[in-house]
Amino acid sequence: MLASKGVPSFGRMSDDLPDSARNRLAGVARQAHFRPGQRIVSCLHSPRTLYVIQEGMAKMVGISEDGRERILHLFRPGELAGWVALEKNRETGCDIIAVSPVQALAIDRRDFLEVGRGEPSVLLAVTREVSRLFSNMADWMLALVSAEVPQRLSRLLLELAEDRTGPRFDFVPLAHPLTH
User: Fold this and answer.
1) CB atoms < 10 A from the CB of 6, how many?
2) Can you count the helices (H) and strands (E) in the chain?
3) Which of 92, 103, 167, 175 is 20 to 30 A from 50, comparing alpha carbons?
4) pLDDT of residue 6
5) Percent of the chain as helix, strand, coil, to the nearest 5
6) Rounded Cα gap, residues 7 and 25, in angstroms
7) Separation of alpha carbons 169 and 166, rounded Å
8) Average pLDDT over residues 143-164
9) What are the DSSP calls for 67-130, one per residue?
């Protein structure tokens, strides 16, 4: 996901960032690669890195009281993962795990905040993105408690479908494997 002039895309945030902000972020970002099943963010440690997913998919999971993994969110290309890293010494309570091979831009908290001091549009763009993600998660949680299992599974399968627009919608190949 490269934006114009060879500057990497910072996902949905890119639309809200002037060139100067994107260039400064590009100067501190590094490429990170994760294998399927590899932890991107661990619930056991206070994260220090913010990730912009470029390729692949990752899941945010928590463990229920009975020890079952619960998927709270699926991160797709263009989304921001690990935003808790922006809070110093804050544990996430959730893991973010690669579902497929993931390529991401990784930005250290200290570097991100330094860029944000000089480019406030970066901080506003992250705030909008985290707000959007929380809104989506709230909608998902509402559906979780109000919809029956077949409806929830159908919704998840549609979200994971590669292409839902073809003439034959009776067989839809999944872009990513199910974990549950």
Assistant:
1) 7
2) 4, 8
3) 175
4) 63
5) 40, 25, 35
6) 9
7) 6
8) 67
9) S-EEEEEEE-TT-EE-GGGGSTT---SSEEEESS-EEEEEEEHHHHHHHHHH-HHHHHHHHHHH
Cβ-proximal residues to 102 (8 Å cutoff; 6+ apart), any chain? 33, 34, 40, 53, 55, 56, 57, 58
Using CA atoms, how far apart are residues 76 and 133, in angstroms rounded to an integer?
Answer: 11
- Say if residue 99 is exposed, middle or buried (CB neighbours under 10 Å; 0-12, 13-18, 19+): buried
- Pair of tokens at residue 128: 């909008």
Residue with tokens 């990730």: 51
Looking at residue 16, the DSSP 8-state letter turns out to be: G
Report strand pairing: 58-63 vs 69-75. Answer: antiparallel
* CB neighbour burial string for 75-93, b if at least 16 within 10 angstroms, e if fewer: bbbbbbbbbbbbeeeeebe
In the structure encoding, which two tokens stand for residue 109, read together?
Answer: 């908290």
How many other C-beta atoms can be found within 10 angstroms of the C-beta atom of residue 52? Answer: 27
Q: Dump pLDDT digits (tens) for 36-55.
A: 999 998 877 767 888 999 99
Complete domains list, the chain, with CATH? 4-160 (2.60.120.10)
pLDDT tens digits, residue range 1-39? Answer: 444 456 777 877 777 788 898 899 999 999 999 999 999
Mean pLDDT of the chain: 78
Strand ranges across the sheet with 30-34: 30-34, 102-108, 49-55, 80-81
